[in-house]
């Protein structure tokens, strides 16, 4: 008999508050790094997308020899007008040996966590080791997660933030009051990047925008490009991409969804996992510009689910649910109906 | 703010017992028939399979203009030895307009129900209208569901059952005691098919077997071939398939998974949906042999989820779960953490 664990939003919040969000981000980053190190062992299926006029619903599966995971995620730009999340999601982790799902988890908060953890893990390999100042362009739903991850994992102690919406800035400052991070508000993106070691772009508009123009990127900077993550949505002026090396999660997906959708199909990229294994060098000098063109890949969700599974087992958070039948005799499924007391 | 409904095993059993299993099967058959009638409107993605030495885990998505559904299903032949189900599953129904999932349902019982409902719905179009006697070869997990569906939807009043395992027969008879169906136990498959109007094959062995040989199929019979549903698993002697017309759910899938995997790639088949719309005739005469080579298709799961969604709304069965975040301000995801009382 197997049971399945459910980690809903309330459980997720309780788990994060028990462990501390900094520890959760560090833990997820370590799991992501481990899975990137074992990248060739993964079954990397493309996302399965169902498009409509209103948006897209996607399933993102991946597996290694022991575990299978998938995430359900939608993207509906018009949801914001109805007071709904543009993106929601949930994930499932299953046992490859039996095919039984083990964990069902909310993945709206978990996706923000894993995106920030992956960004900071990549920056630890790609940004200058002495990086202390981060420019943050976009103070939306992911901004606080990115900020805490870069503080905890990279050692950033100052953020220069810019957003076109003053209320977004106000929310960002309110949420991070007392976090120990020095926050300065910039009047423009150009002002935000002054003196920054790392530039994180994480804006929400679904269009080809120039959030970051070529003249704003100085030698030695690491660009953490988060917001350009689907066809028709980019943030960087294309010429930036030719000034340094571009690091990606999974080239076939990034060429469609990432900043490099602006570039020819054979535009050279470096796979992040090969930097982590040591097969390819990361940053080559203090003057090099490095760019992480992040779109979010199924293996990062897998790592997040794997981390969460280990934490719910260790802490007892999450509830047992009866999503799976557990008949005494597997051939007697019907017997569950005629003996309701066996449920 | 949107909530999501969870229909676990206990809720599913309670729902079936309130509505009556005959009504559930008839209801699902009507929903399947409606969706088959609108077949061209569906986005028909192939299954996404992840194979291992132990088995397979699959995601089966489909969508029309209003609703999106997918099923997670595994197939692990060795699970039986560990007292686990060979096949388990769950499904999700979502709103295409917002991408928000609405229903999470167990789909082990629901799959047995939809398979039986689809079989009986097909037989109502393909079997002789005066069919009263069904041969049932295989008394495993699906046998009782098939039996009740054929009683309720086709008008079968007598079943001649055969299984190699006496305990399976005993379980089948026990579960259907008092169901109003006359059950006779045959000593062989050949004896079971004597005088039958419909032959249902639903055996579990994962191999190319000859459960039904050519000489056992008389003129005018409808064959409901359920068990041959994955590569390397067939039940019918190939020559049977050339003696009548073969009806299938979705040819690209059935040619890989169904009985017709034994036949050349251009073996002629008729799509069941075209019979339901009236574009193609069903049974042509009282002497014709008709064969439903069923493998189970994503649209049938979609129909089942759609039916269940309507029933949980009407009855109140199922629980509200917090799989999705509902922040007051969608841009303030982080605010859920710092204000846990808002959860």
UniProtKB/TrEMBL annotation, chains A, B:
The keyword Translocase does not apply. GO terms for molecular function: ornithine cyclodeaminase activity. Its EC number is 4.3.1.12. InterPro entries: NAD(P)-bd_dom_sf (IPR036291), ODC_Mu_crystall (IPR003462), ODC_N (IPR023401). Pfam families: OCD_Mu_crystall. Keywords: Lyase, Plasmid. This is Ornithine cyclodeaminase.
């Amino acid at each position: 008999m197997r049971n399945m664990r459910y980690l809903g939003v309330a459980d997720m919040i309780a788990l994060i508050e028990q462990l501390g969000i900094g520890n959760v981000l560090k833990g997820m980053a370590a799991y992501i790094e481990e899975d990137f190190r074992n990248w060739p062992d993964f079954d990397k299926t493309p996302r399965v997308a169902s498009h409509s006029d209103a948006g897209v619903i996607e399933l993102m599966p991946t597996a290694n020899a022991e575990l299978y995971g998938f995430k359900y995620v939608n993207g509906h730009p018009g949801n914001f007008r109805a007071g709904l999340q543009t993106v929601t999601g949930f994930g499932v982790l299953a046992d490859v040996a039996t095919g039984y799902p083990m964990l069902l988890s909310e993945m709206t908060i978990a996706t923000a966590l894993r995106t920030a953890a992956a960004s900071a893990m990549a920056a630890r390999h790609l940004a200058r080791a002495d990086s202390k100042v981060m420019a943050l362009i976009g103070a939306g739903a992911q901004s606080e997660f990115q900020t805490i991850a870069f503080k905890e994992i990279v050692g950033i102690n100052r953020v220069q933030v810019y957003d076109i919406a003053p209320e977004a800035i106000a929310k960002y400052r309110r949420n991070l009051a007392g976090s120990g991070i020095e926050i300065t508000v910039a009047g423009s993106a150009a002002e935000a990047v002054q003196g920054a070691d790392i530039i994180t772009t994480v804006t929400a508009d679904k269009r080809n925008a120039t959030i970051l123009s070529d003249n704003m990127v100085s030698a030695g900077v690491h660009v953490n490009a988060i917001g350009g993550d689907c066809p028709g949505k980019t943030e960087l002026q294309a010429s930036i991409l030719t000034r340094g090396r571009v690091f990606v999660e999974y080239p076939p997906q990034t060429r469609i969804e990432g900043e490099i959708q602006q570039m020819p199909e054979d535009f050279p990229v470096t796979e992040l996992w090969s930097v982590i294994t040591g097969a390819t060098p990361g940053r080559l000098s203090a003057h090099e510009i490095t760019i992480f063109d992040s779109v979010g890949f199924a293996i990062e969700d897998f790592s997040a689910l794997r981390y969460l599974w280990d934490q719910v087992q260790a802490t007892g958070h999450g509830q047992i649910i009866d999503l799976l039948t557990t008949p005494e005799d597997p051939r007697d499924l019907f017997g569950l109906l005629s003996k309701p007391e066996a449920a």
